[in-house]
Protein: TetR/AcrR family transcriptional regulator
Organism: Collimonas rhizosphaerae
Amino acid sequence: MRKIDPVKHEQKRRDILEAAGRCFAKDGFRGASISSICSEAKISAGHLYHYFASKEAIIEAMAATGLEHAEARFNHLMKSDNPIEGLIAEIEQANTQSCSAQQHQIDMRAKKQLHVDMLAEAGRNPAMAEIVNQHSTKIRGMLATLLETAQKRGQIDQTLDPDLAAAILLSAMEGVGNMTMRDPELDMKKKLDMLSTLIKRFLTPGSGK
Amino acid sequence: MRKIDPVKHEQKRRDILEAAGRCFAKDGFRGASISSICSEAKISAGHLYHYFASKEAIIEAMAATGLEHAEARFNHLMKSDNPIEGLIAEIEQANTQSCSAQQHQIDMRAKKQLHVDMLAEAGRNPAMAEIVNQHSTKIRGMLATLLETAQKRGQIDQTLDPDLAAAILLSAMEGVGNMTMRDPELDMKKKLDMLSTLIKRFLTPGSGK
Amino acid sequence: MRKIDPVKHEQKRRDILEAAGRCFAKDGFRGASISSICSEAKISAGHLYHYFASKEAIIEAMAATGLEHAEARFNHLMKSDNPIEGLIAEIEQANTQSCSAQQHQIDMRAKKQLHVDMLAEAGRNPAMAEIVNQHSTKIRGMLATLLETAQKRGQIDQTLDPDLAAAILLSAMEGVGNMTMRDPELDMKKKLDMLSTLIKRFLTPGSGK
Amino acid sequence: MRKIDPVKHEQKRRDILEAAGRCFAKDGFRGASISSICSEAKISAGHLYHYFASKEAIIEAMAATGLEHAEARFNHLMKSDNPIEGLIAEIEQANTQSCSAQQHQIDMRAKKQLHVDMLAEAGRNPAMAEIVNQHSTKIRGMLATLLETAQKRGQIDQTLDPDLAAAILLSAMEGVGNMTMRDPELDMKKKLDMLSTLIKRFLTPGSGK
DNA sequence: CATGAATGAGCATTCATTCAT
DNA sequence: GATGAATGAATGCTCATTCAT
């Protein structure tokens, strides 16, 4: 007679988070209103608070799960034996819409937008800063490990500090990702080729003098 | 009957813009209120509307003048004969606080914050998108010209497309600049050294295979 | 098909009423929420409505049973042959914490708070006004009867109208009880001694001129 | 051209305070809404916040000014040479509506209601508790001084501690004042006569044994 | 020029209550 | 009996903007 169904509850949470993601991408964390999120999620204003304690909590949950997904994907792509190839695969994955053109492009754009919003938010919201920093540290660690392994194999320059090199590479990749916002007129394919070149030259052994 | 003094008027506009910059850096474009800007600028709420038609207008004007300053500084630093040296100078200028430590660091952080905010805003505000894009295009043009000249002189790799290379370089620099937000624990000096290495390897002739 | 157990039902009602009492004392009738009462009573929000039709109904039931308890205690203490002694006993009972200091003091304070809240509520809620008035009339009747008996015995001034004197005495006692709220710094023991003096002088025969 | 008119501002504050008083008396501090106060004061919801920082601030200001008025009136009535006469005058002033029957009675009732509400609020709002306590302490001091003087003149019993006696008298008066809420059916005139008797017997010299 | 009074829509959040299970 | 999901109106408060002076 009395049951708590944690599965349904969790599913609803995810639904709301997705709706919130669409609203945040369109209007920003501050610009999106609770009522717009509720409309998008097709629930009443009051009911949202059975799932999240506050707007802040929604933002944090969304940032956290979003970054976890990114992390998982990155982790998967780093399985390659060659870090250069892995990075390039990751870049292409993150910046191109391969199949279901229209819909995917929207998701892509929304993800980039959320990413930049999180960075901006991190600058003034300590909770967000910590989420972003933890995620960044994790990803950096993964890449650093990969670089170290590759160094031992002689695939990449052995004089580079793996951690610092990872930091710089990820920053550069992020910067190039943001170009969609800054310079939407540039051809994505050409940018990615040039980025590949940059990465190869940076990492290739013997190029360090 | 006497006309307004256009010089004074322009000065007041600049004062307000500076005050707005401080508020926006602290609270974001949406988070900062007109009344807080007026307090900071020491004018009354109503009076602000003699200088700007709306909050939107303030945001746009601030973005525009802010980017013009950045542009001017970049232009000045690109005067060097060697683009690699120029870029590194620019990076250091943009990421370190040389003299009046405390105050400067605050300004630095505020500028970075505003920069990211503008990027985020550009994603949803077409007016902001155009401002950011125009500025980006200008800076990219400058750097591309410089790279082209250097290619002719044989200082850098001649196989690189100057425009694309400039785009990638600027993106990477921006990404590294944003690291302060993502990973505040990393040592700035080391990051800049690594970035220099990246740029050198990317541009140095003969490294292309 | 089996009927509800009226004993259990009544017990649950009492449990809820007690929980409600704690919440109301802490946050007031308006300030306490149904959900906080349900938490305190360890039942679900919806289930409460099997026992009470509305928040209003809870408030009224709580006021009624609370006053019935007060009434019973008063009735018991008025059993004494001498009304002066009885009143003083009642005052001490109502204003001091004899044994389990800490806990009792909390209960004391909560009761006083509820008492004042009821009075305030009575001013704008006719249902509450009637409850308070009925209770007050009953208690006043008891005391009046007692005074009348004592007058016949010559224990107290015979010129006093018993009903009016009872009203005034009860009011004064209530006022002194409320002093805990108004002037918490005053010593309770001394106040009670002074109140005893007041009562004695008021009632003692021959003091009327 | 530019003027701040503090007189007008202060007048508006008072207007709002009066409107708030009416709303609070009708619905209680918690029950009255900002929007109802604004309707009553004929201003917009937002504009109220130019005059008061919060609802809390309105409540406190209203309590403070209300008690100041009461204090002033009390002070004036205590000018009499005989404290017994003064107190009785005060009681009558506070509990009867002499002239403009209808309107005054409403004010009277509203004042009593607010008084009880303040006491209830003081039990859980420290700010209100302090306001009530400060006022109470002041009034008590006045009365104690008066009693002391009268003791020296031999007008009242010299064995009573003036401060405690003042506390008890004020409490009793308050309790009787609250009777309007508890027992509205009782005749006010008779109650006041009986209260006079109580006071006289309490204070008259020689009645202490 | 410059002020600050004034507006009214909008915000995040809370709450008493209902209902399907 | 008993649960917790669901509602939607209401609350205190903020804000960009306008306007009389």
Observations:
- Helices of chain A lie at 6-31, 34-41, 55-77, 83-95, 101-122, 126-152, 162-182, 188-203.
- The two ends of chain A are 74 Å apart (CA to CA).
